[in-house]
Amino acid sequence: MNETLLFGVAPWVAQWLTPIWILSVGVTAGILALVVLWGLFYLVSRIPGISELGTEPGRRAVASWIGAALLAAASFYVATPYIRSNWEASGANLLLFLLLLTPLCYIFSRSLVMLLTRRSIQEVPEAVREGVLWPLLIVALSISVFTVMGIGLIRNPMEYFRVLQRWGTVGDIKKTFTIPVNSSDSAVAEYHPIDVTFHRNEVRMIRFRSSENVEIRSRPIEEDITMEARLIEITSRDVQMVPANPGTMRVLFRADEVNRLWVLNRGSKPAEVTIFVNFRPGIPEVAAIPLTAIAVVVLFLLYFMQRASFPRMSAVALATAKSEMGQPLFTILAAFGVLCLGAFIFIPGNTFGEDIKILKDSGLTLIKVLACFQAIWAAGVSVAEEIEGRTALTVLSKPIDRRAFIIGKFVGISWTAALMFIILGSFFILFVAYKPIYDAREGANDDPTWQICFFEATRVIPGLMLAYMETMVLASISVAISTRLPMVANFTICFTIYLLGNLAPLIVQKSADQFPIVQFFAQLIATVFPNLENFNTYAAIAGGKDVPVLYLGGAGLYCLIFTLISMLLALLLFEDRDLA
C-alpha cells in the first residue's frame, strides 16, 4: 500500500479530508456572503423611504404583495421546464405549484421587508450573540478554519477554485456555420476558422453534422505538419462523435482552452456545419461549494426574518432555545451521539463489503432518536412544567398572547433540534467520508479515491433533512400533548405514535385480505397518525440510490401540513386551559 507522504500526511488522509475541505469552503463562502449581505442591507435601509416600508402597515402590505408577485413569477419561470419534463398533467400541476408557491413567496417577501428596517439591521449583531445563532456561528467558524488548514493537505487545491470560477461558463454549445466552397482557382485547400470556445477537460462529447463533405481540424494546417490536429472527416448528412477521453483530447487539442476550429469544405456547395459540444465540469464535486454556501445563508436569513417579522413569538422562542441549550441534557446527548457515531465506524457489519450502508442507517437513526428525545423533553419542560408551575401565567401577563406563546415554544424547540442535527450531522459526514478508506485498509485493498469518499459523505445529507422533518412532526405533536398532559404521558404517547407511524404502511398492507373491521382500523391508523415511513431512507441506502429532490419537496410539504395541523390542535387545547 502506498504510504508516500503528501504535504506531511499520508495520501489516504488527503483522500479522506478532500470532501470535508470542499464542504468547508462552501461554509466559509456562506459566512462571507452573509457579511456582504448585511452590508448591502445596511446601505439599502439608509435609502429614504425603504426603512419606512416595514414600519407603516399600508406600505408594508403593498411592498409585500409586490415582492411576492415578483418572487412567484421568477420561481414559476425557473421551475416550469422541470415540472413539464417530470410531471404528466403539466397544466394542472403548474397551477397547483403556483397556488402553493404564492403564500410562501408572500411570507418571504413580508419578512424581507421587515428585515430592511433600520432597527432590524442594527439588531443583527445582537441577534448573532444570543440564542441559537451563536453556537451555529461557532460551528460554522470551526468548519471554516479547516478551509485554510486543509490547503496543505489537499492535492492541487487551487484547481478546485479554477473549476468553480469556470462553472458559470459550463454548458452545452450548439452552433451552426456556413462554410463556403473551396475556390476552384486555388491550389491550396482553404480552411475557414469558426469560433467555438470550450475547455478540453470539460468536454464529454463533440458532435458534428454537415450538409456537405468537410474536414475539421483543431489547428491550422500550417501549424500541424504531422496532421495530428485533424479531428474528423464528415460525409454529407452524416453525424459523428468524438469521445472525450483524456488521451484523445490531449492529442487533438494542445491547449486547455479551445477558442477556434478550422473547417475545409470538400463539397460542391456551401456547407451548413452544426457543432454540438456537451460539457461536464472538470471536477463536478465543486458544485457542493455554492450549494453549501446557499444553505448557510438561508439558515441565518430564516432566523433574522423570523426575528424581524414576529418579535413577540421570537422572544419566546429565544428564551426556550437558550434554556434548552443550557441544560446538561443537550450536552450529554450531543457528546453521546458523537462517541457512538465514531464507534460505528469500527463495528463490523458482516455485510461482505457493505458495512457503510449499516453505518449510514445506524447513524441516521441515532441522530433522529437523540433529537426526538431532546425535542420531546424540551416540550415537557418548557410547556407542561411551565403551565403546572404557573410560569406560563407570568409570561402571558405580559403583551404576549397564547398563540405567540405556543408557537414560540415550538419554534425554539425546532431551532434547538436543528442545532443538534448540525453538530451531529457534521461529525457524521466526517465519519462517513472515512468509512470507505477504513474498509479498504482493513481488507488490504487500494485506498479509494476522494470522489468515492465525497459521494458517500454527501449522500447522507438528504437523509439528515428527512430525519429532521420527522423530528419536527413529533415535536409538534409533543407540544400539543404538553398543553394538557405531563412529561411521562407525553413520552409514552409520542413513543406509541412513533411506532405506529413507522408501522402504518405495513399494517395497511397486512390488513388487505382481513375482515372489514380490521381494514377499517388499519386505514384509521394510517389516516390519523403521521406516516413516518415517508421520512425513512433505509430503502435508498440499501439500494444505493440517491433521494430525489422532488421526493424531498413532497416530504417537506407533508411535514409542513402535519406540523400545521398539530399546532392548530395545540392552540385549541391551550386556548381554554386554566392557567390559574
Written overview of the protein:
By secondary structure, the chain is of the alpha+beta class. Among the domains are: 171-279, Jelly Rolls, CATH 2.60.120.1070; 311-580, no CATH class. The protein is 64% helix and 10% strand. It contains 20 helices and 8 strands. The protein has helices spanning 11-45, 57-86, 90-115, 118-122, 124-129, 133-149, 157-165, 246-252, 288-309, 311-325, 328-344, 355-388, 391-396, 402-442, 450-458, 460-482, 487-510, 516-528, 538-542, 549-575; strands at 173-179, 191-199, 203-210, 214-217, 230-234, 239-243, 257-265, 271-279. A 4-stranded antiparallel β-sheet has the order 1-8-3-6, with no helix packed on it. The protein has a 4-stranded antiparallel β-sheet with strand order 2-7-4-5, with no helix packed on it. The longest helix is centred in the C-terminal third of the chain and has 41 residues, at 402-442. The chain is globular and about 100 Å long. The N and C termini lie far apart (73 Å).
In terms of DSSP E residues, the strand content is 5-15%
Average pLDDT across residues? 81
SS-derived structural category: alpha+beta
Low-confidence stretches: 1-5
Helix content: 55-70%
User: What's the gyration radius in Å?
Assistant: 30 Å
State the major sheet: 4 strands, antiparallel
Helical stretch count? 20
Biggest β-sheet: strands ordered side by side in the sheet? 1-8-3-6
Counting DSSP E segments of at least 2 residues, the number of strands comes to 8
Could you spell the SSE succession in H and E letters? Answer: HHHHHHHEEEEEEHEEHHHHHHHHHHHH
State the end-to-end CA separation. Answer: 73 Å
Shape: globular
